[in-house]
Structures are given as C-alpha cells and as structure tokens.
Amino acid sequence: MDARERALAYVQQHEADFLQRLAEFVAIPSVSTKPEYQAEVARAADWLIDQLQRLGAQTARFTEGVHPMVYGHLPADNPDAPTVLLYGHYDVQPAEPLEKWSQPDPFRLEIRGENAYGRGTADMKAQLLALLAAVEAVRHAGPQPVHFKFLFEGEEEIGSPGAARVLAAHPEAFRADFCLNPDAGMQGPDLPSITYALRGLAYFELRVHGPSHDLHSGAYGGAIHNPAQAMAELLAGMHDADGRVTLPGFYDRVRPLTDEERARLAQIPFDEEAFLASAGAPALWGEPEYTVLERITARPTLEINGLYSGFIEEGSKTIIPAYAMAKLSARLVPDQRPEDVAQGLRAHLETHAPPTIRWELEQMASAPPVMVDVDTPAVQALARALAQTWGREPLYTRNGGTIPIVAMLQDQLGIASVLTGFALPDSGMHGPDEHQHLPTWYKGIRALVRYFYELGESGS
Ligand SMILES: [Zn+2]
Fold it and tell me: What is the per-residue pLDDT across 200-218, written as a single tens digit (0 to 9) for each?
C-alpha cells in the first residue's frame, strides 16, 4: 500500500470521527453578523486553533476587523514541495427564522437520510473540515507531499472587513503558490466542479442636483429642468436596446470568450426556464448573442440598484424635486478594472449631462474580477483528483458573484484561487434546513487527499 492508499483507507476508517467533529463544530453558533454572538465566533476560532495544533501546525490569530482570522502553517519535509493555502470561513449566517427549520435547534446536527442538517454545514463548516480531515489522513499516511498553510476567516458573511488589512500586515505568512477555496460547491452529486472565474464589482452613487429646494411645479414647471427627469435620461442612455452597456470603453478590456470556453460552459446543465421561474420575472432579457448562463457569469453588467427622487409617499404632491439619486453597480469580468468603469461613467455624464443640472459621482466598494487559467498544473491536479473520485471529468464553471477574499489574495499577494466544494446546489445555504450530503462529503475528503498527492507530484 502506498501513502496515497493508506491515506484513503484512513478516510474510510474515520468517517464517523469526521462526522462527530462536524457536529461539534456546528454546535458553536459562530454567527458573525450579530454582535451578541461575538464570543461564540471567538470560540469557533479557538476550536479551529486546537484542531490545527492537533495536526501539528503552528498557529496564529489575526484580528483587524470584527472577528479573528485563524492562520496555520504545516510545512512538508521537502522544502521544494509546493505550498497550498487552504481557505475556509468558520462564520455562519443567522439561523432565523427558527420555525422554518424541521429540527428544534439548527445548531444541533441532525442526520436524516443521507444528509447532515444544521446551520453552517454546507456553507461551509463541512467544507472546511473536509480540508482538515484530508490533511490529517495525508499526515497519518507518511511524508506530506505539499506544504500546507491555512486561512480560516470569521468575517466572510459580513463582507470580510478585516481581511485586506490582515493580508497587508502579514504578507509572508500567507505566501503560497496558490489557494484552494472549497466554498464554491458543485453542480450535482455526480457533477464535480471547478470554479475558475468570479466577477468583480464596482459600486457607485450618483446624485443629480437641480434647484436648491423642492419647487412648486405650477410655478416653476416648464422653465426649470426636473432632476428626476434628467436622471432618468442619463440612466436610460447607459444601455442600448439589446442590453449592451454604452459607457465609453466599457468593453475595451473584456477578454473575449473563446469557442473552447463557450463549449466548456455549454456542458454545464442549466435550465433557462427554471432560472426564469426562480426570478419570477415575465421574460428573459439581455445580450442576444450570449446564452443566459454566459450573461450571468461571463459577461459584464451595469445595474441600477436603487433609485430615489422627490415625493414617494401616499397621495400626491406637485413638485419639481431638488435632487435625484441612483445607486449603480457593475459586475466585471477579466480584464476590466473598477477604475475604468468609474472613468466611463464620468465620461458618459460629462458628455450627456445638460447644463441645467449638476451631478456628483461617488465610487463605493469595488473588487476586481478574478480568473485562473484552467491549464495550470494546480488546476489540472484538482481536475485529476475529482475525476479519479467521481469517475468523470469535472465541469468548469464561472461564478457571477464576487468573493472579496479571492480578489484580495489575487490583488494583494498575487495568489490565484482555485474554487471547488462538496455542497450541492439545493443544500439550503443561508436558509432553513441547511444540510450537507454526507456521501458527497466523504467523497470530497477523498478527492482532497488525492489532490494533495497529485499536487506534490506535479511539483507546481
Ligand atoms: Zn460560504
């Protein structure tokens, strides 16, 4: 039996232990969004430090935001082995509304059928523990094939407020060849998945000012330009009839989708009708030359997130409002940069805003898009490990959302993340009856074991 087989046998023999550990971890209600759970989040961090120390790791706790980031380092004997940074977040969403759960206590793990139910199981305590279980199995089986580093965040569900400062303060600690992030889930129990791209975000607030105060429309209407109307005109000019964004330069840096990539994306099962039904909208919309899945993951967008002006109470009030406000955000794809969108927006406003109003644009949160080359050894090692475990090639997916830590690791430390995970699409993340499918979880642990050996052999 070689080390890999010993490690896989170890996983098989210890499934019950791993499940017991999941129950312990879930029992700590590490709800990061609610101040009254602060001590529980800290307790979850302590619990993880203990787990890492049992594995033999050096540990540290860095707090720059609200909750600690747990760090661990477990070097291999071979100094030339690659370093993989294993990412997880140990904070969870609130469990409320409690009456929607089928069990009395969402923080008491319940096994029903093939699933383990509890808040934070799928998102992502089971995923995080899969990493630790696989590391344990590999350590038990012989020399470690790769250097392990650990980054366990306690602030993911609140937007990672301290993460950028932690990374900036300890760049050497987190230095790694790349990051494995199992927070992306998979497409189905038989569809292992690798997520290789996320969209970025650029968020803005636009204010259009007219008169110094609300005016009587009977006395001023017809001779003073209404800022709500001016706002509507400016916003209406930001898309063409097919849904393309018309801001100058918006698409200049967009990396075109290759035929090869489109073919890969087309393998992902995606039901447009179910998607439309889930949205509850009357019809689909958007760039006609792209599939719906491409539109929501691989194409950039500009959205109006909020719109406000004038009198919105019940009844009527005949005014020309003093100002109008809009919140706008763009989802970005490689290689767009948030600052380019800001520039395009400004150019649009400079060209089209009439002299009858004054405008102000404030740039708020932003995150760059990220994409990892699927042909790199690190991704291919994961693809082989998933294929060996599931007996089929993984799907390569893009995610239309934004994960701040992934962008920060890329931006601040130059560390690319490869995303996967063993949570199924219907696992109830953030909602009631959240659960982890256990057979998939045990498979996931075995896949991670294989991954570490593949990685060591690939020498990436
Ligand atoms: Zn998550």
Answer: 999 999 999 999 999 999 9
CATH number of 3-198+369-458: 3.40.630.10
Distance between Cα 322 and ligand 1 center (Å)? 42
**Ligand 1 centroid to residue 429 C-alpha, Å:** 8
Ligand 1 centre from 339 Cα, in Å? 27
> What separation in Å is there between the alpha carbon of 76 and the centre of ligand 1?
28
Query: What is the Å distance from ligand 1's center to 159 Cα?
Result: 11
User: Ligand 1 centre from 124 Cα, in Å?
Assistant: 5
- Tokens 């900036």, located at residue: 168
How far, in Å, from the CA of 267 to the mean position of ligand 1?
A: 25
Distance 132 CA to ligand 1 centre (A): 17
Burial of 71-85, coded b for 16+ CB within 10 Å and e otherwise, reads bbbbbbeeeebbbbb
Within the chain, all domains assigned CATH 3.30.70.360 are found at 200-254+300-366
**Beta 147-153 vs 83-89: how paired, if at all?**
parallel
The model's pTM is 0.91
Helix (H) or strand (E) holding 325: strand 323-332
Rounded to the nearest angstrom, the distance between the alpha carbon of 240 and the centre of ligand 1 is 35
Question: What pLDDT, on the 0 to 100 scale, is given for residue 459?
Answer: 60
Q: Give residue 404 CA to ligand 1 midpoint distance, Å.
A: 11
Nearest to 155 by CA among 147, 165, 170: 165
Beta-sheet strands, E only, within 3-100? 58-62, 69-74, 83-89
Location of each CATH 3.40.630.10 domain in the chain: 3-198+369-458
436 Cα–ligand 1 center, Å: 13
CA dihedral 219, 224, 229, 235 (to 10 degrees): -160
CA 183 to ligand 1 centroid distance, Å: 5
- Centre of ligand 1 from the C-alpha of residue 163, in Å: 15
Cα 305 to averaged position of ligand 1 atoms, centre (Å): 23
Q: Which value, to the nearest 10 degrees, does the dihedral of the CA atoms of residues 336, 341, 347, 352 take?
A: 120
> How far apart, in Å, are the Cα atoms of 270 and each of 79, 160, 414?
44, 30, 32
Q: Cα(227) to centroid of ligand 1, in Å?
A: 41
Rounded CA-CA distance 403/429 in Å is 16
Task: Dump pLDDT digits (tens) for 7-53.
Answer: 999 999 999 999 999 999 999 999 999 999 999 999 999 999 999 99
Crossing angle for the helix pair 377-390 and 438-458, to the nearest 10 degrees? 140
CATH topology of domain 200-254+300-366: Alpha-Beta Plaits (3.30.70)
89 CB-side CA count, 13 A: 25
